[in-house]
Specification:
The protein is an alpha+beta fold. It is 55% helix and 17% strand.
């Protein structure tokens, strides 16, 4: 049997099967730790799954690879304590979910090896589109608050919470079950998403976006501003024209995507004569159907 310290070192270096084997070896002890704190409840498996995801992100902080087991159980205890603090008599519609602290790097920034990026992106791609939307926004974008996610997806804050909970549960199971498989490269997929976004914004600034809307946006396309359904292709084109005619320049800051769900983030640069014309930052959540945009959610930030 491969010792824990060898598995931990290999996992920290990006060996996905080693990480899967290490966590599988200690899963029983992690579950026992969760039961001791939470009792025999449905939250136990959630706590273990959250701890596995947390351990994957924090492997570089494990100073003693030989103590991987106690370290994993300590993460479970921290997750359980967070869940216990979040338990409230009312309301039950919006349970506080265990999520990474705001000061922590985003998951995509923690995935230093290509194999790890491919593994996680592949798992995200297996989520249903509604769940994938909130997961991409929460973990792979700067518009990650429950309120911003609700605006971009056109759903309630409580629904954001429940979809994140389901997403993390499915993601943890998929990561466990697919370790060591071969996937298409996440870096190549990311560059494809970037190229598409750059093409769109270049076309916007050249004044020819009407043809893009006609060709790439479905006839039944709809747009949501700040969570409210407000228009169709014509309304969206009018908004783009109004913004550009005012001398506003939009620049891309970040792009994330998975199959038929894309997230584009950017900044507005207002002209001197109208410094408050647009908010400082924006995000578009694009949902595709049959290769064309069916819906865009729009939200603004500071």
């Amino acid at each position: 049997m491969i010792p824990d310290d060898e598995l931990a070192r290999a996992a920290a270096a990006g060996d996905v099967p080693a990480f899967a084997l290490l966590t599988a070896r200690h899963r029983a002890g992690m579950r026992a730790t969760a039961i001791a704190l939470l009792g025999y409840t449905d939250e136990v498996d959630d706590a273990v799954q959250d701890a596995v995801l947390t351990a994957f992100r924090r492997l570089p902080t494990l100073r003693d690879p030989g103590s991987a087991g106690p370290w994993l159980r300590a993460i479970v205890r921290n997750v359980c304590r967070t869940q216990l603090r979040a338990r409230r008599p009312i309301p039950v519609a919006e349970p506080e979910l265990y999520l990474p602290a705001a000061a922590e790097p985003r998951p995509d920034e923690m995935l230093d090896t290509a194999d790890a990026r491919d593994w996680v992106r592949h798992a995200v791609g297996r989520l249903s589109a509604p769940i994938r939307e909130v997961v991409l926004l929460r973990y792979f974008s700067g518009f990650s608050s429950y309120h911003q996610i609700a605006q971009l997806c056109g759903i309630g804050v409580d629904t954001v919470g429940s979809r994140l909970r389901d997403g993390r549960r499915i993601l943890a199971r998929t990561l466990r079950d697919t370790a060591g498989e071969a996937y298409r490269t996440a870096d190549a997929e990311a560059e494809t998403h970037w190229a598409l976004a750059r093409q769109h914004f270049t076309t916007i600034h050249r004044g020819g976006y009407a043809s893009v809307i006609e060709d790439w946006y479905r006839p039944d396309f709809s747009v949501m501003f700040l969570g409210a359904l407000t228009g169709d292709r014509t309304a969206f084109g009018t908004l783009i024209d109004w913004t550009m005619e005012a001398g506003v320049v939009g620049t891309l800051r970040d792009v994330a995507g998975s199959d038929d769900v894309l997230v584009w983030e950017g900044a507005f640069h207002n002209p001197p004569e109208s410094p408050d014309h647009c908010p400082p930052t924006f995000a578009w959540m694009l949902r595709l159907r049959e290769g064309r945009v069916a819906r865009i959610g729009v939200a603004y930030g500071v």
